[in-house]
Amino acid sequence: MTRDVSLTRRGLLAGTAGTAAALALAGQAHSAPRAAPRSAPGAAATADGFAGVNALGLDGTTGGIAGEVVTVSDADTFLDYCDRNEPYVIQVQGTIAITSKQGVRSDKTIVGLGPDAEITGGGLDMYRRQNVIIRNLRFTGGEDDSVSIQQDSHHIWIDHCAFTAGADGLIDIVRGADYITVSWNHFHTHSKTMLIGHSDANGGQDTGKLRVTFHHNFFDGTEQRHPRVRFAEPVHVFNNYYRDNALYGVASTEDAGVLVEGNYFENVPHPIYSGYDESGPGRVVERDNVYVGSGTPETLGTVVEPSTYYTYTLDDPQRLPEIVPAGAGVGRVA
């Protein structure tokens, strides 16, 4: 199914076919303890959706592609590179155990090597940062948010990751963050999955920002917040696969503007809400979605079209139960 807009699904996988190219970086490596320069799988890929928009002085999101490629396998070295001001492609090998939320500075690509790269126990925090890519990583058992994007951070791309069993949100996009894409991720074994907008009282900072694209994510038995949205417009939710989400799929609240387009909802009692809990109603448009064993979506008002910012093509929503599980999560980045 194709809308009257053209394809810009750059650096992503459609089904099982990989389109991300391997990066060939020339140049000399800096010496660093316990870190070895290597080629970076998938690091040359570029973001689509809102993370690919030229805005705020950036030509889309390119992460650390201008910098050195390093491989890390322990927490101290990993956090050291995350905290440096220079651009880096940081390749994660094996399991990195951290605590709390650890800061990531601007101009970084953090990419897992193979299907087993993992961040466990803690999460990553972008606080007034820009131009960060996170790909091909498992996030497990975070004692706070697994990924937090906040305080006017912008141009962040989270792609082909797996998130499970955190203590709070798996991904929070709050406090004036902007130009974000969340694509081809697998979310499971969790309740409060993703939040856009810090609180009902934070409209002054959030209104006019929090532009986020969600596409080709697999919400696999997670309960709620896929996402829950306050104030943001537009938020574009397209071609995601929702399965067995006990509480609800998408909630638009506090006058947010959300387009829910071309998704597949399977056994979701409340696929779309306008307003939720104590939060007032948000505007939400739904079109071209598939509902199987699911309730009736709530809609309200009109929403700014994402096509005023970027171009895209929809996959046939009937095929999403095949396409998304085959392509989402870790181990799919070439």
Automatic annotation (TrEMBL):
Keywords, comma-separated and alphabetical: Carbohydrate metabolism, Lyase, Polysaccharide degradation, Secreted, Signal
Sequence intervals crossing the membrane: none
Keyword Cytoplasm: no
Any matching Pfam family: Pectate_lyase_4
Leader sequence segment: 1-31
Family affiliation: Belongs to the polysaccharide lyase 1 family.
Protein name per Swiss-Prot or TrEMBL: Pectate lyase
